[in-house]
Specification:
Aldolase_TIM, 12 strands, binds phosphoenolpyruvate, SAF_PseI/NeuA/NeuB, antifreeze protein
């Protein structure tokens, strides 16, 4: 059984606990705190477990030239990348306001700390867990510092290979047992061919003592639901109020109806996954009673006859006879009374046969 741990107060993940569903608001709030609040409420109303943002301390995340570079994209909120990012960045006070709002709405609230200073701030803010965005999975000083803070962690693995992810696992594990790694491909929107869900299976083999999960940037919900069927214990998806809004992430995000459907589908698949024990279930009894096959006399079998296989047929019979699967065990046994042709062979008629029905 993969490790399970408490990701948020009172909320375990891993093992048989329900998949933890993160609504990644990210920067889809357009820099508007009222939209951000609407999105938190929407995340809650759609049944997700957590509303997540991205917190950067821009002078720590970027160097000067990166902030000064022109950003001419249709998704740009400013002439330079710095202006664009400043427009989208909420202040510490705004974060406190959003956290308070999430608390009122009763949904877990956190953010990816996009640099070490942002992690410091989130630590002070007392977020339940740290999300490490893909861009920081090769940032080993950051990983070490973040892991040492002792909060649970979710580490995403976009833009990375297995060798480095092994290093990530080792680095975090050394300081913090409570973390999960998410399969992720950092393309927006992500094509199905590039999702590589089988990495989930590989991660579970490589890292058998941590839960694994999936952070998706594809369109629609099907692939994320499939990730849960493959063992993802955390699913993160970008959410939006309108896919046509300006911003890099809206197109690959889920609108409220999709998020609600994702949550419903994940919960349905979880119910369907079961415990893996193959057995006839009580719900199958009506079908078995009506159509289950059992042993019938192919010919008249007089009392005292020693049974051979050619005396026996397998049919849907009334009343139900001995289980069809026991046909070979009947050979060599004696019948205690006459059985007419086409009559069911009942357990009490065969000497030395005792077997309980399956249901
Ligand atoms: C890799 C990474 O951090 N990706 C994030 C999470 O998925 C994204 O939300 C980016 O912040 C976003 O796509 C950036 O868009 P722009 O460059 O237009 O601000
Ligand atoms: C970029 C992020 O996530 P991911 O790498 O999982 O897409 C994030 O959490 O901000």
């Amino acid at each position: 059984m993969p490790l399970e741990f408490e990701l948020c107060p009172g909320r375990m993940i891993g093992g048989n606990h329900p998949c933890f569903i993160i609504a990644e608001i990210g920067q889809n709030h357009q820099g508007d705190i009222e939209i951000a609040k609407k999105m938190i409420k929407m995340a809650k109303d759609c049944g997700s477990d957590c509303a997540k943002f991205q917190k950067s301390e821009l002078d720590h995340k970027f160097n000067k030239k990166a902030l000064e570079r022109p950003y001419n994209s249709v998704h740009s909120w400013g002439k330079t990348y710095g202006d664009h990012k400043r427009h989208l960045e909420f202040s510490h006070e705004q974060y406190k306001e959003l956290q308070k709002y999430a608390d009122e709405v009763d949904i877990f609230f956190t953010a990816s700390g996009m640099d070490e200073m942002a992690v410091e701030f989130l630590h002070e803010l007392n977020v339940p867990f740290f999300k490490v965005a893909s861009a920081d999975n090769s940032n080993f000083p950051y990983l070490k510092k973040t892991a040492k803070k002792g909060r649970p962690m979710i580490v995403s693995s976009g833009m990375q290979n297995m060798e480095t992810m092994r290093q990530v696992y080792k680095t975090v594990k050394e300081h913090n047992p409570n973390f999960t790694i998410l399969q992720c491909t950092s393309a927006y929107p992500l094509e199905a061919e590039d999702v590589n869900l089988r990495v989930l299976t590989e991660y579970q083999k490589e890292f058998p003592d941590i839960p694994i999960g999936y952070s998706g940037h594809e369109s629609g919900i099907v692939i994320s639901v499939a990730a849960v069927a493959m063992g993802a214990k955390v699913v993160e998806r970008h959410v939006t109020l309108d896919k046509t809004w300006k911003g890099n992430d809206h197109e690959a995000s889920l609108v409220p109806s999709e998020l609600a459907e994702l949550v419903r589908s994940i919960r349905l698949v979880e119910r369907a996954l079961g415990n893996g024990v193959k057995q006839m279930l009580p719900c199958e009894k009506p079908c078995h009673d009506k159509l289950g096959k059992s042993l019938v006399a192919k010919v008249k079998i007089p009392k005292g006859t020693v049974l051979t296989q050619d005396m026996l047929a397998v049919k849907v019979a009334e009343p139900m006879g001995i289980d069809a699967e026991d046909i070979f065990k009947m050979v060599g046994k004696k019948v205690k009374k006459d059985v007419e042709e086409d009559e069911s062979i009942l357990p009490e008629v065969v000497e030395g046969y005792c077997k309980k029905r399956k249901c």
